[in-house]
Amino acid sequence: MATVIRLAAVDDDRMLLDGFANWAAGVPDLRLVGTGATVDELLRELAQPVDVILLDLVLRDRSSAADNVRRLTAEGHRVLVLSVWAQPDQVIATFAAGASGYVTKDHDLSALAVAIRQVHAGQPVFSTELAFACLRDDRPARPQLSAREREVLLAYASGMTLKQAARHLGIRHETARTYLDRVKAKYHDLGRPTRTKLDLADRVREDRFGVG
């Protein structure tokens, strides 16, 4: 007997969800067990992890696709992202956040079923669009900063002196310098030297550390 794959879907298009439910009901190894217009709505509904969650890239609540992927994977779900287009930055961001696949909505339902089975089997779904996006990924590597390292970086790069940044954050000047040295070392290890305050301001802008 074939394994039945338990699915859930996040999409704010009710007509699309209804159509998907009708289609899945006719596929023997797929079972749709939950839907939601937002990630919050779906997580409230699900009592336990499902095998694969289909996640629409752009939702009306303006939530970040990458953040949505991170939240769902943190709950133990595998995520297959669906989108009407293949936008390179979005493709890369969702995979970096832990998505198992990315499929554009111009594929037919049989192709979607194949993608779902691949994700369930632990295989990443690589489409032509994804390969193209990865080839175009020229973003520099972003260091993993602690919360305090990031705070010192943002305060200092905003124009404060290190002493002002320390006072602003309620820490000692020597402690702030230690955090800043760690930030510089992490960038150096990635081949992105940050010797001056201007360099650090450039890194903040490049890596969007001031966003979110």
TrEMBL record:
GO terms for biological process: phosphorelay signal transduction system; regulation of DNA-templated transcription. InterPro entries: CheY-like_superfamily (IPR011006), NreC/VraR/RcsB-like_REC (IPR058245), Sig_transdc_resp-reg_C-effctor (IPR016032), Sig_transdc_resp-reg_receiver (IPR001789), Tscrpt_reg_LuxR_C (IPR000792), WalR-like (IPR039420). This is DNA-binding response regulator, NarL/FixJ family, contains REC and HTH domains. GO terms for molecular function: DNA binding. Transmembrane segments: none annotated. PROSITE patterns: RESPONSE_REGULATORY. Residues 6-120 form the Response regulatory domain. SUPFAM superfamilies: C-terminal effector domain of the bipartite response regulators, CheY-like. PANTHER family: TWO-COMPONENT RESPONSE REGULATOR.
